[in-house]
Every structure is written in structure tokens, then in C-alpha cells.
Amino acid sequence: MTQPQPQLLIAAGGTGGHMFPAQALAEAMLTRGWRVRLSTDARGARYTGGFPHTTQIEQISSATFARGGVLARASVPFRIGAGILGAILKMIRDRPTVVVGFGGYPTIPAMAAAILLRLPRMIHEQNGVLGRVNQNLAKRVHAVACGTWPTDLPEGVEGIHAGNPVRSAVLERAGASYIPPGGYPMEILVIGGSQGARILSDMIPPAIASMPTERLQHLRVSHQARGEDEARVRAFYDEHGISADVQPFFNDVPRRMSEAQLIISRSGASSVADISVIGRPSILIPYAAATGDHQTANARGLVDAGGAILIPESRMSVKTVAEQIAMVLDNPDGAAQMARAALSVGRPEATENLVSIVEALAGKGTA
Predict the structure, then answer these.
(1) Per residue in 79-98, pLDDT tens?
(2) Which distant-in-sequence residues (6+ apart) come within 8 Å of 92 by Cβ?
(3) CA quadruple 239, 241, 242, 243: dihedral sign
(4) What is the pTM of this model?
(5) Distance CA 15, CA 269 (A)
(6) Order of strands, edge to edge, in the sheet holding 159-161?
């Protein structure tokens, strides 16, 4: 009699920071013969284009108290309750072997259902500080995998330093050869994430434009800007004769990273993981409004290793950014050393670490 095909249910929230490591785990488990279901909401569904086509995508009902007016907030418990009930019914019909949550409020229904049905379950926290949902789940799961180390965990909870999984497109470029800055075509990649990108669109273009003309002649910029800022950022680069590709979202970030001499980025966990696995010098600007200042914690490993320059948002100015860009581009040997330092803290094995935890939980059965 053949063994039933094991099934992994992944619950992930509506940002790339949650969805990209979820995608990496989905890719790995499918190659091992598992079925994979993804439980997310409408926001998360926007990031599912890169998931393998055999992943079963389920949109569930969930909500957060952090958004909307009085009526919207009053409906939150009912929407979450409906999501939990729906998740329970689906799990009864098609019982997962293991349930993994990657954080964000859309994970609440699936993780709550897994707790009520006593299924093997774990969470993965990408940041150095637990998000609100993972904070509440940490004591009610069988394993807490941490992407950033050390991670600030609740008392009595032990974490496993797994690292942050990166997508296969990033792994394909792991440790790609780095061409230091010089008198030839060079690339700067600017990525701001979905939140807090505006200040990068305000500060980075004029900082780049202040560079010497002979440097700008060799420079090409890829700049990810919010949709409402796209036109003005593109116009600024055009007015200053800077070759720039400005888009709200790049589908080929790993390729652009591997070709860049310098990356300027927020320090979201996935961005930091991608930068370190590929191995590139970076200027990191933590998002000041991030919960628990977790983006500063995310950046610490890269900065301490000498692979990145940290600019707190409170100290950010056109002059400061321009000085740090010049420090990298005017120092080829230093830039090459930064690339090697970034690579030294990369965790390309993070996905395999998560796979091992999932398989161990599958072997233990329910609890």
C-alpha cells in the first residue's frame, strides 16, 4: 500500500518579506514530493506569481486592527472568525501534515486552525524582532525558526537559527563574481520595498546626480519607486542625463543585484538575505516606522561584518547619502572587500534548514 502524499500548508502575509521565504520553502518541498497549499489574503495573492504552478493558492478571510475606520475595526473579529472556521473546514477535508506560518495577520486563520486541530506546526520569523502575530503564536507552536540572529524572543521560547530562505532565482546567483567600480559601465540598484519608499525617491536621485559628470557617464540606475512617485523620479533622472530604469516593481531583482556595483536598500529581512547570498556592497537605510525597529536589527549582521553601510533614517540627507555612495564607488578595493564580507554572512542553506525542521515535525505526528 502506497503512503499518502505528505502535504505542507504555508500561511503567509501580504508583503514580499513574508511571501518570498514562503515561496522558497514551497519550491523545495515540491521537489521532495510534497503537496503544497498556500493560505494568504488578497494582498498576499499579488506575490504568488513566482510560486510554482503546482502550489494550491487559497485566499482566506482575515483582517487587522491596524487599518481602517471604526466600522472596519469592529468587523475584524468577525472576519478573522470566519477565516478560522473556513480554515478548519478545509483542514478537516484535506488534513495537512505540517503547517508553517511566515507572519502577518493573514496567517492567523490557518495557524489558529492548526492549533485547534492539534496539527504539527511552526513559525518562521524573518526579522530580528518578532512581528505581532508571531509574538502571539511563539508559545503555541512546536518550533520557532529564526531568519535573523539573534532574534528577540519571548521568555521561555527557544529559537532555531535557520536563516532566511531565498528564492531559487537568488540561489542561482549565489556568490556571483563581483566587478568592482571603475571607469566602465556600472550599475546602482535602489530598492525601497512597499513601505517607506518615498524618502528613498526623495533623497537618492539628487545624491546620485551630485556625483562628478565623468562618473555619471558610466552609470546606470535601477530605481524601484512607488507608483505615485514613478513619473517624477524618472523625470528627475532624465533631466540630469542619468540613465535610469524606474519601475514600481522589478520582476528580476536577483539579476539586477548580481549586476550591481552597489545596492541601496531598506533593510527588510528578504532584501538583506538576498544581498548577502549574492554578495554585494550595500547602503542600508532601515525603515524608521518598522515595528520594534526590526530593520535596524536585520541590518546588524551585514554592517558588523563590513559588508554594508548603515544610514539611520533620522540622519539621512542628500549630502550624507552622496558621501557614502562616493565612499564605495571611489574605492574599488574596499568595494570588493565589502562584497566578500556580505557573502560571508549569507545563509544559502536556509531553505534546507527549514526543510529539515518541517520533515522532523512530520515525523513526530500531532501534538
Answers:
(1) 788 889 999 999 999 999 99
(2) 117
(3) positive
(4) 0.87
(5) 11
(6) 56-59, 35-40, 7-11, 98-101, 121-125, 143-146, 159-161
